[in-house]
TrEMBL record:
The lineage of its organism: Bacteria, Pseudomonadati, Bacteroidota, Bacteroidia, Bacteroidales. Residues 3-276 form the Carbohydrate kinase PfkB domain. It holds the Pfam family PfkB. Signal peptide: none annotated. It comes from Parabacteroides gordonii MS-1 = DSM 23371. Coiled coil: none annotated. This is Carbohydrate kinase PfkB domain-containing protein. PANTHER family: CARBOHYDRATE KINASE PFKB DOMAIN-CONTAINING PROTEIN, HEXOKINASE FAMILY MEMBER.
């Protein structure tokens, strides 16, 4: 029985920023695994799917102590991410897709929390979500469910069957654009309440440099953003946030403590290219010394649709 299991594709990523262009592995599975490997007090496993040609990334993770199981796939997911000066905005294309995950391949894994790192709408079927909920708490990132690929271009779409799927999801992360797409509400309070009413037990709304809000049906926890020394690369920040949050929740931390830990992890990650490479001590130091940004500017009490 693992404490935490991430299920998701390792991708090929082309990351274009105003400063440079980088080719590297990516995806929730990649960023989550490389972040959590820095914590030696949790039992973690990864289930991924990728083409044989990319198995070197799995070998690298295994060499660094990560337990990895691989579902064979004809192709790997190939993303192109283009960022402007504002790192909160990006343009995406998908140049190849991998096979979706199946119940048959997931039958043997046992964990307390399963994080479904969806990248595209068909990565996890409703049947897979329902099945995983019989085995442990399900966590999901909404971003993949809201991406449809047509002619290699990524288009925003609604989450088909969301009201049924969300009944089985304990933790759900969405950013400010995704919460509007999911609920139709543009304010945090109404969107979070709607997602909770649909069944999510802990709703995490990330707001970039404005911090984040977590709602558990009783309390809105306003989590500050910590100011980075320099904004270098925002790719994988949402995955890093969820790594920190689920790690802390799996270890028994409260919601606010877990949220602040996750926010500090994201700040450290954004200061460098590639996945999070700090330590727990770095995270605690960030929480204690970094400037908190805009904690009190997030309005959660003015519902409108």
């Amino acid at each position: 029985m693992h404490d935490l299991c991430c299920i998701g594709h390792i991708t090929l990523d082309k990351i274009v920023t105003p400063k440079n262009t980088v080719h590297m592995a990516g995806g929730t599975a990649f960023y989550f695994s490389h972040a959590i490997k820095h914590f030696n007090d949790i039992d973690y496993t990864l289930i991924t799917a990728l083409a044989e040609s990319e198995m070197k990334e799995v070998d690298r993770l295994r060499s660094e102590g990560i337990d990895v199981a691989v579902m064979p796939s004809k192709h790997s997911v190939y993303f192109e991410n283009i960022y402007g000066e504002n790192q909160d905005n990006r343009t995406q294309r998908v140049l190849a897709k991998a096979d979706p995950f199946t119940i048959d391949y997931l039958k043997e894994v046992e964990a307390k929390i399963f994080h479904l790192g969806s990248l595209l709408a068909d990565d996890f079927s409703l049947d897979v979500v329902k099945y995983m909920a019989t085995k442990g708490f399900v966590s999901a990132d909404s971003q993949g469910y809201l991406r449809e690929v047509r002619d290699k271009n990524v288009y925003a779409t609604d989450w088909i069957g969301k009201e049924e799927a969300l009944k089985y999801i304990h933790f759900l992360k969405a950013n400010e654009l995704e919460m509007v797409a999911l609920t139709g509400y543009s304010d945090v309070a109404s969107a979070a309440k709607q997602l909770y009413d649909w069944g999510v037990k802990e709703v995490l709304i990330t707001l970039g440099s404005l911090g984040s809000v977590i709602y558990d049906g009783d309390t809105f926890y306003k989590i500050p953003a910590y100011k980075p020394r320099e904004v270098v690369d925002a790719t994988g920040c949402g995955d890093t946030y969820m790594t920190g949050y689920l790690y802390q929740r799996a270890k028994g931390a409260g919601i606010e403590e877990a949220g602040r830990f996750a926010a500090a992890m994201s700040t450290i990650k954004i200061e460098a290219s590639g996945p999070f490479s700090g330590s727990k001590e770095d995270i605690i130091r960030c929480m204690e010394t970094a400037e908190q940004r805009y904690e009190d500017t997030v309005c959660i009490n003015s519902p409108h649709k």
